[in-house]
């Protein structure tokens, strides 16, 4: 049907890579390159949301949780690396004599930190997903549960100022695995790592979407019971997509810390998690590029309009959201196809409704 | 294919006090097209639901040596029990080939799932030829005709290599020609597999059934060949009412209209 399609997508990723990795560092100022790096981090999380929500039908409204796991793991390592033998900055403020919390100790090791960024979200999402999907929790119930977890984690961090820095968060990182973060060359390097990871994540979901697993995931999204009667356990299929999306959120969070230089509970709570979803919906949740581009667009709006006109920005974002949902339910990425019509979108890219009425009935009964 | 049979013994299904199936026993063997018939609410579909693990039942349902009751749905499928539903349930968004490929993936390793599909499984080509869907390979299943969707479901059972095919009203809503084609297809399939059909269509049953079990109010009313069942006065009573006091000849004519009425009232 669409034999050429994979190669079109792949060359799209290639062009995206050239723009991000080669063109952007040459033409953008340091300030905007840092901003673009920040958008890349949100985009990495968004690519995962596209996989879980767009293709898997799981409305993951609490990706802030996994974003936080990666971000705080990275922030703890950078804090310790910056402090060296001295007391970490966040502890100086209230009680310089207190011992370092025990769970911080292993994060002195760079290897452990990198491992934690990968393994923490996999373990957390694995346990959470297993418990939820085996019990067939889905639809709005799943969405609310994940959202509640993001709220809970943000509250926990806020209230444990002695262990995590609380609302003030962790900041003032000077070193990044031995590199001085103030050095402009190192800033470009950190940006390139984030952009490179975004490309890697896009390649990963590209392969997912064209694989048999991708077809199976769409089948599960559209008719979970039928998949069960084909001899698969839908819980396992959804679990894989959920864990991969959690891993991507964690990677995005980890790169967010050296680029932005601060992580606070506000970056991971309910509002932040919904902003990630908004970008994905905006761009087109079931398409390959939609989530990443949507997240970057929302991120750009956030840091340009959001800082100059914060009151208005919220309304503009809300208005955009309503307009896109009303007029372009498949997001902005469906716009070219609407006008030209030459790329017949594969049916898998037509996402199922976010809330399936039948599903709700099923849970209610 | 082994000559394992499906043997259901003393099957009970209760829904919070209401006995939907109260002690049903029957068996089905490869080589015969087995029919399960009965008026609305007789418990036909509930029997299939219990065998496939969708609802809880007590008693026994064995495929060869293996007990099916109490196992999870997807594990029962992996033992070789496949089913279709009253409303055709294929993946509308995926093409015919993708639908069949997912059905064929049952025995694939998890790792191979991460690769893209190259070429078409021989089992899929065979099933396409068998069901006459070869021309529709790239068609999204959602735009197939009703009859083609049912055939696609049967083709999916074939590629997943089901030993037992439980078909819930496979010809409902089909044209006369489509019914004939479906009946002949089932007879071909039944040569090597166990085929159990739940039906309301008496004409279809008469033309293609090898053996029939009649259910009524959750119990087996009669069992045997089409002729034996039609001759059974209890069956005539259930289908025609006591006033009917019908003869065998009447039974052969009237059920057509009965079946039509039943179909209209079926949920």
Give descriptors for this structure:
heterodimer, A: 365 residues, mainly alpha, two-stranded antiparallel ribbon, two-stranded antiparallel sheet, 2% strand, globular, disordered C terminus, B: 267 residues, alpha/beta, Rossmann fold, 6-stranded mixed sheet, 4-stranded antiparallel sheet, 11 helices, 10 strands, 37% helix
Describe the structure.
The complex is a heterodimer of chains A (365) and B (267). Chain A is mainly alpha-helical. Chain A has one domain (9-364). Chain A has 16 helices and four strands. Chain A has a two-stranded antiparallel sheet with strand order 1-4. In chain A, strands 2-3 form a two-stranded antiparallel sheet. In chain A, a hairpin with a 2-residue loop joins strand 2 and strand 3 (179-180). The longest helix of chain A has 27 residues, at 184-210. Chain A starts with a helix and ends with a helix. With 267 residues, chain B is an alpha/beta fold. Chain B has eleven helices and ten strands. Chain B has helices at 44-51, 73-78, 96-104, 122-131, 146-159, 176-189, 202-208, 226-231, 233-240, 248-253, 255-265; strands at 6-15, 18-28, 33-37, 58-63, 66-67, 81-83, 164-168, 194-198, 211-216, 219-224. The radius of gyration of chain B is 19 Å and the shape is globular. The A-B interface holds A 1, 6, 207-208, 210-213, 215-216, 218-219, 222-223, 225-233, 347-348, 350 and B 52, 72-74, 77-78, 82-83, 89-95, 98-99, 101-103, 105-106, 108, 112-117, 138, 140, 142, 156, 160.
Alpha-carbon Rg of chain A, integer: 21 Å
The pair of chains with the biggest contact is: A-B, 26 and 34 residues
CATH H-tier superfamily of chain B: P-loop containing nucleotide triphosphate hydrolases
Described by the principal axes of the CA atoms, the overall outline of chain B is globular
Number of strands of chain A: 4
Strand content of chain A: under 5%
């Amino acid at each position: 049907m669409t034999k050429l399609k994979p190669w079109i997508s792949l060359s799209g990723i290639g062009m995206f890579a050239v723009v991000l990795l080669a063109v952007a560092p040459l033409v953008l100022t340091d300030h905007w390159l840092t901003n673009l790096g920040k958008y890349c981090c949100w985009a990495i999380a968004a690519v995962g949301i596209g996989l879980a929500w767009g293709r898997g039908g799981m409305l993951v409204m609490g990706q802030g949780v996994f974003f936080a796991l990666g971000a705080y793991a990275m922030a703890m390592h950078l804090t310790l690396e910056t402090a060296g033998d001295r007391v970490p900055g966040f502890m100086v403020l209230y009680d310089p004599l207190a011992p370092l919390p025990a769970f911080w100790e292993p994060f002195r090791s760079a290897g452990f930190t990198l491992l934690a960024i990968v393994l923490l979200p996999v373990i957390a999402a694995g346990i959470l997903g297993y418990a939820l999907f085996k019990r067939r929790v889905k639809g709005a119930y799943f969405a609310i549960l994940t959202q509640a977890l993001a709220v809970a984690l943000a509250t926990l961090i806020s209230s444990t100022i002695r262990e995590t820095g609380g609302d003030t968060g962790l900041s003032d990182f000077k070193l990044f695995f031995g590199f001085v973060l103030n050095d402009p060359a190192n800033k470009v390097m950190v940006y390139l790592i984030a952009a490179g990871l975004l490309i890697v994540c896009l390649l990963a979901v590209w392969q997912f979407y064209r694989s048999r697993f991708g077809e199976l995931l769409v089948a599960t999204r559209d008719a979970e019971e039928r998949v069960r009667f084909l001899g698969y356990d839908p819980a396992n299929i959804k679990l894989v997509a959920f864990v991969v999306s959690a891993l991507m959120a964690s990677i995005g969070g980890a790169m967010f810390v050296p680029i932005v230089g601060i992580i606070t509970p506000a970056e991971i709570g309910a509002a932040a998690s919904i902003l990630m979803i908004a970008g994905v919906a905006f761009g087109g949740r079931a398409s390959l590029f939609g989530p990443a581009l949507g997240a970057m667009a929302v991120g750009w709006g956030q840091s340009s309009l959001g800082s100059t006109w914060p009151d208005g920005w919220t309304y503009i974002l809300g208005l955009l959201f309503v307009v896109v949902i009303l007029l372009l339910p498949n997001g902005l990425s469906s716009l070219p196809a609407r006008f030209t019509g030459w790329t017949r979108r594969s049916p898998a890219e037509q996402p199922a409704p976010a809330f399936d009425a039948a599903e709700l009935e099923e849970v209610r009964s | 294919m082994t000559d394992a049979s499906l043997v259901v013994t003393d099957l009970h299904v209760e829904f919070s006090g209401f006995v939907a199936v109260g002690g049903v026993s029957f068996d089905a063997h490869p080589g015969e097209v087995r029919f399960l018939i009965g008026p609305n609410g007789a418990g036909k579909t509930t029997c299939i639901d219990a065998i496939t693990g969708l609802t809880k039942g007590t008693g026994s349902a064995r495929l060869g040596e293996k007990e099916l009751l109490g196992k999870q749905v997807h594990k029962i499928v992996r033992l070789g029990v496949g089913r279709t539903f009253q409303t055709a349930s294929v993946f509308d968004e995926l093409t015919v080939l993708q639908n069949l490929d997912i059905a064929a993936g049952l025995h694939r390793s998890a790792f191979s799932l991460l690769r893209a599909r190259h070429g078409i499984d021989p089992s899929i080509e065979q099933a396409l030829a068998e069901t006459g869907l070869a021309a529709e390979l790239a068609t999204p299943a959602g735009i197939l005709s009703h009859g083609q969707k049912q055939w696609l479901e049967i083709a999916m059972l074939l590629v997943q290599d089901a030993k037992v095919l439980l078909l819930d009203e496979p010809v409902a809503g089909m044209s006369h020609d489509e019914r004939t084609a479906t009946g002949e297809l089932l007879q071909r399939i039944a040569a090597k597999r166990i085929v159990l059909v739940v039906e309301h269509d008496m004409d279809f049953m008469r033309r293609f059934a090898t053996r029939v079990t009649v259910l009524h109010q959750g119990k087996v009313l009669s069992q045997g060949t089409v002729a034996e069942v039609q001759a059974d006065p209890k069956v005539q009573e259930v289908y025609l009412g006591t006033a009917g006091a019908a003869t065998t000849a009447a039974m052969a004519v009237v059920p057509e209209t009965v079946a039509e009425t039943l179909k209209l009232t079926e949920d």
